[in-house]
Write a structure and sequence with these properties.
The complex is a heterodimer of chains A (226) and B (189). Chain A is an alpha+beta fold. In chain A, 36% of the residues lie in helices and 20% in strands. Chain A has one domain: Jelly Rolls (Sandwich), CATH 2.60.120.10. Chain B is 69% helix and 0% strand. Classes of the chains: A alpha+beta (226), B mainly alpha (189). The structure holds zinc ion (2 copies). The site of one zinc ion has 5 residues of chain A, from loops.
């Protein structure tokens, strides 16, 4: 099954995701790819294990102001009030019934699977759905490219991540299929084209163009303390 | 980097955590708390505005460890990496107030792993030990880069700027580091 994925997430992008520094928009693309890539998840597990090792090895001042015993007493006091509540939260994980084409976390962002989506025409037979996130630095969209046609309005000044969900696209010599991820940056000029057999549905995350509005928000942010 | 008999320690921690998960074993949790709480506090202190904020986030993390202990799967990872992921997610929540999209293994569209080997728990401990040794032999500049990536809330482009290195050098150091760790884990003893 994992052999089907040919294009994987890069170490540097995966490390940002593992360390917790990757923004929400980019993370949707990485997590959606990982849902379809056992091999990618094995690499993530290695990075999280490295994170665990670094946590074990972290430097700390054992004689610091914190009294360990006092710290434990405070913790212990919380446990007694928490135990009853905890029992209710922990339900065993079970595999959800039914079938789906779009994996989590993307399906929840879209509010449904493929047959429930409301597409907006982009022109020349292509469609898109904008996916709102809390992340200002990226723009997240689902694209439907007609069979044999190029990806429309295609220019990006920075990073672009594309994850194929249905169909396939070719870019130069390479073909990207379900689960594959393509990482492009401003140095790469490319022309993705949907393969001729069927429409291609993919998730595309790009650098958001810097908006005047958000620039002002950023300027006043420190004053507001947010 | 301290030298301990980590393998034995990790096996014990997995057993202690399992006991917390099954019986809400306070004594087992106390041992985990004494070992991990100063480390989690130090991890939070890399970003927190003061010691008290770091302490509160540590308490929140350890409380989550207590509450979620029955979800810990020793076949999937060791105790340190599991606690790391809990602390990391709380840190994203506290400092960035952002969501961290994640895949869901119970989702019908999820492509499951190939069937795992029988004694996975033992395998995980062996692997943790091999990883620890491999990390000790990483070239210092690669080890430092991993520390910066995991401890601090900065992107690789900011790390590159801070170290005065081209982005390409940072990327290739990351690739070299993980290539080395991966090949160390592939060597079966
Ligand atoms: Zn992959
Ligand atoms: Zn592009």
């Amino acid at each position: 099954m994992s052999a089907m994925i040919n294009h994987h997430v890069s170490d540097e992008l995966l490390l940002d995701y593992a360390a917790g520094t990757l923004g929400e928009g980019w993370s949707i693309a990485v997590a959606t790819h990982l849902a379809l890539s056992p091999e990618g998840r094995a690499r993530l597990a290695l990075m999280e294990n490295a994170g665990g090792q670094l946590l074990e090895d972290i430097d700390f001042d054992a004689s610091a102001e914190v009294d360990q015993n006092d710290s434990w007493q405070r913790m212990k006091a919380k446990l007694s009030t928490e135990s009853a509540q905890a029992q209710r939260i922990s339900a065993p994980a079970t595999r959800a019934a039914g079938s789906a084409t779009i994996p989590e976390p993307l399906r929840s962002y879209l509010g449904g699977d493929l047959d429930q989506l409301k597409w907006r025409a982009l022109g020349r037979g292509a469609y898109q759905i904008r996916i709102p996130t809390g992340d200002e630095e990226s723009e997240v969209r689902l694209l439907k490219i007609p069979a044999g046609k190029p990806v429309p309005e295609h220019s990006h000044g920075g990073r672009e991540l594309t994850v194929v969900l249905k169909g396939a696209f070719s870019d130069g010599e390479q073909v990207f299929r379900r689960g594959d991820i393509e990482e492009a940056d401003e140095s790469l000029t490319h022309q993705p084209i949907a393969t001729p057999d069927e429409d291609c549905i993919c998730l595309a995350v790009t650098d958001a163009p810097l908006k005047f509005k958000s620039f002002i928000v950023r300027l006043v942010q420190p004053a507001l303390g947010i | 980097r301290t030298d301990r008999s980590d393998e034995a320690v990790q096996v014990d921690f997995a057993r202690l955590l399992a006991s917390v998960g099954r019986h809400k074993d306070v004594e087992a949790f106390e041992q985990l708390f004494k070992f991990y709480s100063p480390k989690v506090r130090a991890y939070m202190a890399k970003l927190a505005r003061d010691g008290q904020a770091a302490d509160e986030l540590m308490q929140e993390t350890m409380l989550a460890v207590w509450n979620k202990a029955d979800q810990f799967d020793p076949a999937r990872g060791n105790v340190s990496s599991w606690i790391f992921t809990i602390a990391r997610n709380l840190r994203i929540d506290a400092f960035r107030r952002a969501k961290r999209p994640n895949f869901d293994p119970t989702d019908p569209a999820f492509v499951p792993d190939d069937v795992q080997a029988a004694d996975v728990e033992y395998e995980q401990q062996q692997e943790a030990e091999r990883l620890r040794r491999a990390m000790e032999t990483l070239p210092p500049e690669q080890y430092e880069l991993l520390k910066m990536s995991f401890y601090r809330e900065v992107s690789h482009s900011s790390i590159a700027a801070e170290l005065g290195l081209p982005m390409g050098t940072v990327k290739s150091r990351i690739r070299l580091a993980f290539a080395k760790l991966r090949s160390a884990l592939e060597e079966r003893t």
